[in-house]
Amino acid sequence: MINKNTSLRMQSIVFIGFMGVGKTTIGQKVARKLYRDFIDIDQEIEREFNMPTTEIFKKFGEKTFREKEKSTIDYFSQQQLKIISVGGGAFLQEDIRKICLSNCIVFYLDLSWEYWKERIGLLIDSRPVLQSRSLEEIEELFNTRQEIYSYHHSKVNTNDLDVEEVADYIVESLKVAWDIYEPLK
Ligand SMILES: Nc1ncnc2c1ncn2[C@@H]1O[C@H](COP(=O)(O)OP(=O)(O)O)[C@@H](O)[C@H]1O
Ligand SMILES: O=C(O)C1=C[C@@H](OP(=O)(O)O)[C@@H](O)[C@H](O)C1
Ligand SMILES: [Mg+2]
């Protein structure tokens, strides 16, 4: 359910999906196309700890990362006109799902496993959750995580689309939704 108190056009957009589907890259592009500020939750956390996520996991543990992830998302999701990319594990927390779904438009970036696995080399060094797992275990995680991504308002399958094409599709579909539900007078 979309928040009835805020104009749809003003609501922030949140991107969700598994690690490496393109939330950060595409979020940044969509923000530029819509003239909005871009917030990457992982980058905000890394800035606050002054170290990369892999180091945060090593030094403080995943629990500390998840707590900071929740408070950071809580803070930014209450602001308007932002483009926010959250980490792939954020929607594991029900509280995060609730605040994002009630305050923002949640866009799910979908990518099939066959496409995703071609990207693993780009991701392994910076994603601690992947580092301790075999390919079979990552596939299992990929499949079990799909349930948490079913909580969204809109979705795009990015198989065979480049970053520009995905961003254009998202901007167009947002404009259609804004025009249907909040036509300009
Ligand atoms: N649609 C796409 N096609 C090809 N490569 C992509 C696409 N989207 C993202 N990538 C690449 O995948 C990698 C992970 O992207 P990133 O935006 O960091 O994902 P996320 O934030 O979801 O973890 C980057 O190297 C990025 O350039
Ligand atoms: O899925 C996860 O548990 C995580 C995803 C990462 O973000 P991306 O989805 O942007 O890679 C980052 O938040 C952290 O490494 C944990
Ligand atoms: Mg990211």
TrEMBL record:
Binds 1 Mg(2+) ion per subunit. The keyword Nucleotide-binding applies. It holds the Pfam family SKI. It comes from the Bacteria. Mg(2+) binds at T24. It is an enzyme of class 2 (transferase). InterPro entries: P-loop_NTPase (IPR027417), Shikimate/glucono_kinase (IPR031322), Shikimate_kinase/TSH1 (IPR000623), Shikimate_kinase_CS (IPR023000). One of its GO terms (cellular component) is cytosol. The keyword Phosphoprotein does not apply. It catalyses: shikimate + ATP = 3-phosphoshikimate + ADP + H(+). Pathway: Metabolic intermediate biosynthesis; chorismate biosynthesis; chorismate from D-erythrose 4-phosphate and phosphoenolpyruvate: step 5/7. Its cofactor is Mg(2+). It is found in: Cytoplasm. CDD domains: SK. GO terms for biological process: amino acid biosynthetic process; aromatic amino acid family biosynthetic process; chorismate biosynthetic process. Substrate binds at D42, R66, G88, R145. Its EC number is 2.7.1.71. One of its GO terms (molecular function) is ATP binding. ATP binds at G20, V21, G22, K23, T24, T25, R127. Keywords: Amino-acid biosynthesis, Aromatic amino acid biosynthesis, ATP-binding, Cytoplasm, Kinase, Magnesium, Metal-binding, Nucleotide-binding, Transferase. PROSITE patterns: SHIKIMATE_KINASE (PS01128). Catalyzes the specific phosphorylation of the 3-hydroxyl group of shikimic acid using ATP as a cosubstrate. Belongs to the shikimate kinase family. PANTHER family: SHIKIMATE KINASE, SHIKIMATE KINASE 1, CHLOROPLASTIC. Monomer. This is Shikimate kinase.
